[in-house]
UniProtKB/TrEMBL annotation:
Name recorded for this polypeptide: Thiol peroxidase
Keyword rRNA-binding listed: no
Alphabetical list of InterPro entries matching this protein: Redoxin, Thioredoxin-like_sf, Thioredoxin_domain, TPX, Tpx_Peroxidase_subfamily
Gene name tied to this protein: tpx
Top enzyme class: oxidoreductase
């Protein structure tokens, strides 16, 4: 798979995640510096919104759009934005943007999400942009790796896939 960042080809660490794979368990850091454990979401539909940094316009749009869409989805759908931003920056962003319906977690410490899901950009130690949707049984139901990291995810397609799982 070819991924570029600003037009320059980058290499992704880890194995590319595919539809039908069992979603790997991972730890990340919550905004309050406690551990996030993906196993705590078993039995729910989970939308992992993956972005390099919430401090860029495209990433901010991605986080706020999924936050808004979360209010239209059922309670058994969980939106989790994953970046490598420090939890302090994530907390500031959520406070300023009013993010209340989606979780934002940081992969800065363990880097388990990036490596286990194949989103870690080797050269930058940032996450590539994309979406991974995991069904109630823990299987990957949808994956999007955005070919150019500075471009948007396909919100409509991701939300359409979530609605199929309800």
């Amino acid at each position: 798979m070819d991924i570029t960042f600003g037009g320059n080809k980058v290499n992704l660490e880890g194995k590319e995640i595919k539809v039908g794979d069992v979603a790997p368990s991972f730890k990340a850091i919550k905004r309050d510096l406690s551990d996030f454990n993906s196993d705590d979401l078993k039995g729910k539909i989970v939308v992992y919104s993956v972005a390099p940094s919430i401090d860029t316009p495209v990433c901010a749009l991605q986080a706020t759009t999924f936050n808004e869409e979360a209010t239209k989805l059922s309670d058994d759908v969980k939106i989790v934005t994953v970046t490598v931003d420090l939890p302090f920056a994530q907390e500031r962003f959520c406070s300023v943007k009013g993010i209340e319906n989606a979780d934002i977690v940081s992969d800065y410490k363990y880097k388990e999400f990036g490596k286990k899901f194949g989103f870690m950009i080797e050269e930058l130690q940032l996450l590539a942009r994309g979406v991974v949707i995991v069904d109630r049984d823990g299987k990957v139901a949808y994956v999007e790796y955005v070919p150019e990291v500075t471009h948007d995810v396909n919100f409509d397609k991701a939300l359409e896939e979530v609605k199929k799982l309800k």
